[in-house]
Amino acid sequence: MKMGKLLPIVLVPAISLAALAQSPQSPAKPAPPAPAILDSIRAELNIVYGHTPEQELKMDVYRPKTGGDKLPACVLVHGGGWVGGDKERFTPLAIGLAQRGYVVANIEYRVGPVAKYPAAVQDCNLAVRFVRAEAQRFGLDPNRLGAWGGSAGGHLVGMLAAAPTEEKFITGDNHNVSAKVQATVVMAGPMELNNEKAIENYRQQKEQSYGFKWIGKLYDDAPELYREASPMTYLDKDSGPILFLTGSLDNPSRDTPPMDKLKSLGVPTQQVVLTDGKHGCWMQVPWQEQCLEAVDTFFKSYLK
């Protein structure tokens, strides 16, 4: 698939992004319930996008009823430590992005108790290929397809950006359809499962670590699997632009190594840090709206 010219993007300190990262004036509170689907939004829920021995794989697709039949699109991937969570958790983000003019495929995937690595990576890869193959049905432009994920979902979209052509991750139908995304938002997701800090945590937590629960083996018994499951292993000049989005209280430094690698490859990258945000702040006021604004701004630069 031919990629358009990637515009350079400058890393801007979060403090200058006042509209996106202002300090809250009152204690954070949970986001309101998922908004009702407005008359302006069309929703198709629980579309089956794949079949596996463990389960049918489903997605919810939201799109504005107006705007034409060549809208930019986003595959949205929930978190949950690779062993939990569901697509409904990200429904407010899906609807919010659809209200900004995108077709949004909010997907589920097999989690750790159901199927170990690489099942979740395979499912996300399949979801991108399904959405692109069904571009006419959903009214989207297959050449303007992004991905956005949070926490474990951030890791999974990192894999989409870095390894769309790896044969081990390609299963199911539409083998001849590209899984490449044109822009990616990694929201508080690990890009390295085998860095020094992660390995230290695995050794301390042993069978209680999310890594073990998902990969199925202790790090010291299978270090090659942890490397294989890391987006950093695959990042190259064709990975496409990546936005790293995280709260200031959620270890923003985790994004430094992948950003440094992307810069060395000449790939546009940026970090937006949300003031006083903790892990999961994207589901809370005031950060949810800030996340949507940051993602929309980023996609407008690269899904065009």
Name of the top-level CATH class = Alpha Beta
Give the N-terminus to C-terminus distance in angstroms: 15 Å
Q: Spans with pLDDT under 50 lasting ≥5 residues?
A: 1-29
Output the structural class: alpha/beta
Number of self-contained structural domains: 1
At the fold tier of CATH, the topology name is Rossmann fold
Counting DSSP E segments of at least 2 residues, the number of strands comes to: 10
The portion of residues assigned to helices is 25-40%
Strand arrangement, major sheet? 2-3-5-4-6-7-8-9
CATH architecture: 3-Layer(aba) Sandwich
**What's the overall geometry?**
globular
Tally of separate helices: 9
In CATH terms, the superfamily is: Alpha/Beta hydrolase fold, catalytic domain
Sheet with the most strands, sense and barrel status: 8 strands, mixed
Series of secondary-structure elements, N-terminal to C-terminal: EEEEHEHHEHEHHHEHEEH
What value does the Rg take, in angstroms? 18 Å
